[in-house]
Amino acid sequence: MTLRPYRSVPLRATFLNWLASTAYDASDAMAARTGQYLPGFRTAGTASAVFRGLRPMLYRAVAPFLRDGHEDVRESAGPAALILAEHPALARHRDHLAVHARRILATSGDDHNRRVAWTALTAWGHDLTGFEPVPEEPWDCGPHSDGLGDLEPPS
């Protein structure tokens, strides 16, 4: 039996959340930021580069879940699809995905998902009039109030 944090959430939603998180870690913004500190991060053959190359295939696997009958699954599929659609080969899907991004902005209580939707719509040149701006993610914050990262011990 697979343990899940919330038993009422379908396993496919849990998997889509994991995929969205993994896609976010390999997203254009994260790859650029990480590349500043690890110059070989996007070099061919690295895990990140291989994952980034798989985005069109992964998108084809995620897209059907945007219409799933379970709300948690649809909510999990949206951010995953939006992040995967950064790949240039998926540009033709962006107008369709804008509908899902707007739904996330209008209904989601999850700040990270709203940030993903806001970022996608902004990058794709869509008008965001009527939506409240989503604040950027604080990159210098971790579990400590002194701004240290997640793995750094408190001062």
Tags for this entry?
single chain, mainly alpha, 7 helices, 0% strand, disordered C terminus
End-to-end distance, in Å?
A: 41 Å
Cα radius of gyration in angstroms: 16 Å
Largest sheet: none
Enumerate the spans where pLDDT stays under 50 for 5 or more consecutive residues: 140-155
Count of beta strands = 0
Structural class: mainly alpha
Series of H and E elements: HHHHHHH
Number of helices: 7
Whole-number mean pLDDT: 83
Q: Which percent range fits the helix content?
A: 40-55%
Strand content: under 5%
Shape: globular
Structure report:
The chain has helices at residues 11-25, 28-37, 47-53, 55-62, 71-84, 94-107, 111-123. The chain is an all-alpha fold and 155 residues long. Helix 4 (55-62) packs antiparallel against helix 5, helix 5 packs across helix 7 (111-123) and helix 6 runs antiparallel to helix 7. It starts with 10 loop residues before the first helix and ends in a 32-residue tail after the last helix.
Topology:
Blueprint: H1 11-25, H2 28-37, H3 47-53, H4 55-62, H5 71-84, H6 94-107, H7 111-123
Helix pairs in contact: 1-5, 4-5, 5-6, 5-7, 6-7
